[in-house]
């Protein structure tokens, strides 16, 4: 029996996405015309079903009537475009806006259901881990949005490498295994620009997009040492975001010297001794960030962690606007270390768990690569919601032992059998097919 609440059923989530796409392109299809929402949903289905290439998807669409049937019943795609038409149609950065709207719609479902509170941490804040990742690189294929890196400049061995990167913010928590992508922004080279975009500049755009979509969300931004500088921290304050940011000694010599020179009541230290590690905490409030921004005060938490098994000593230092006390220092550390979930549970999953994040599904000339990356991230977001709140999906994952095995299993059913809904498919996968298993 399916005990999943209606808004977390697979069909409902896809309907929410479809509605977001249709709202962006309200004009319905004409005779012989494939609508823009159909193009977007077809693209989403490719990444949701973990097709390794557009060519394989296109061949299946042409040869198997069951594929066309399932695209219509599960994804609402009245007529699936061929791979060439799909690439040509989606080769426009403007398609990023409806994809972002779909992310917001899914997130608002979490908010309305009250399940979002499971991610609350540190005085009911939500931790948003932000980081950039590359997903394309080539010495020949490129578009107007590509970043460029030149090696051996001015020599006969000069090589230009074209690449794409994306800045992603994911909702994370030390207490939750799932991560929920909440906003993304490509790091692009704009038309006519002679210099590459950079992650810090992109972060300013990301922050504006995030606050526009989620103006009231009580947020702590988690980031690495790239963001622990005056301009980024001031931008965070302007957008009403708290922060916990890494800081390395090579980039923050003044901060380190100032912090470790503190004595007496200005600095507090305590230790914890667990089964596997001995940890030493040191913290102070009201420390100047650097000489340039001496009036910009931050609170500093330093941690030394000694492994009892290996004898290895690891060290971290974070800056935050949250007042640090003996009572909350350990929780601030846990929140800070949840930042790594953006790499381990987001980018690593996209690259190694069947999503093919680094595969070139189609590059285009005006932003197709970024649109495909956004759709892939959206497919991942839906999977994370299913894994967290869909009881059928959870039971099937337990049965198949791994997400890769589960996705291959679902793809096999999708290609072999006419399906009426994902819920019916999950029922059959869990209880066994009926005698007339030719149509579900």
Secondary structure class reads alpha+beta
CATH architecture of the largest domain: Alpha-Beta Complex
Gyration radius, in Å: 24 Å
Question: CATH superfamily membership of the largest domain, which one?
Answer: Transposase Inhibitor Protein From Tn5, Chain A, domain 1
Name the shape in a single word.
globular
Average predicted confidence as pLDDT:
91
- Fraction of residues in helices? 40-55%
Q: Distance between the terminal alpha carbons, to the nearest Å?
A: 17 Å
SS element count, helices: 15
Low-pLDDT regions: none
As a percent range, the share of strand residues is: 15-25%
The tally of strands reads: 11
In total, how many domains does the architecture comprise?
2
CATH level-1 class of the largest domain? Alpha Beta
| CATH topology assignment of the largest domain | Transposase Inhibitor Protein From Tn5, Chain A, domain 1
Largest sheet: 11 strands, mixed
